[in-house]
Amino acid sequence: MEGAIHKPSVVSSMLELRAPFEAISLIPVLPFLQHAPRGEGQPVIVFPGFLAGDNSTYLLRRFLNQQGFKAFPWKMGQNPGLQDVLYRRLEKRVRGLYKAYGKPVSLVGWSLGGVYARTLAHRIPEYIRQIVTLASPFNLSQNTNTEDVGVSGPIIKIYERLNPRRLEDELINGEPIWREAPPVPSTSIYSMTDGIASWKYCIDHVGDHTENLRVMGSHSGMTHNPLVLYALADRLAQAEGEWAPFEAKWSHRIFYGKSACASEVPD
Which of 64, 113, 127, 246 could make an S-S bridge to 69, C-beta 3.0–4.6 Å? Predict the structure, then answer.
């Protein structure tokens, strides 16, 4: 993602106010979501976004558990940003669940949590089954200056204030491997009306085990967006070693648009 920096539009930022209504929209579609693909006890860890904790992913994890998965919180408190010490703890947690279940663990990362998920996928791919990122700006460079990042200016300023020594951290100072397509199956779910992170930084190059899936909704509402929940169940329910792109049947195209079957990322 070189060239001009794409910031979320003012309109998209204002539309973040719809997040509570997206949560309410779950109520009438719950009967439909109960027919989403079911899991068979596959372990899944859900990573929250910047400044968010496990409470923010409760509805998502509850839905996955009801669908037959074993969804776990990350248990690291609020996400303070990219920190090597936190990454090390997450790696230990993934290894522990792998040992407990005897099988690779799937990772779901919302926003900045998706950057952690992609880093783990690169460093310990043998422990990870697949990853799904939700509005995660993993295509950002290491530079976190306000003027050079396609994320809402106020969010970046808060990040800088809370992480004054961020450029000294080993995770930030190292190679930004999260920008590269993971060596495990990966789905990037994004919204073109994201008011926090420009969607152009939340998509990957489409490949044999990599896809982008567009939904309607806000950045803040990703963890309780009905379209996201259905897509998550569909992706996570796939048999190990049999990953395939999101099926492009007509009903999916109505709700997910061309991205459900696109061979290239949108312009």
Answer: 64
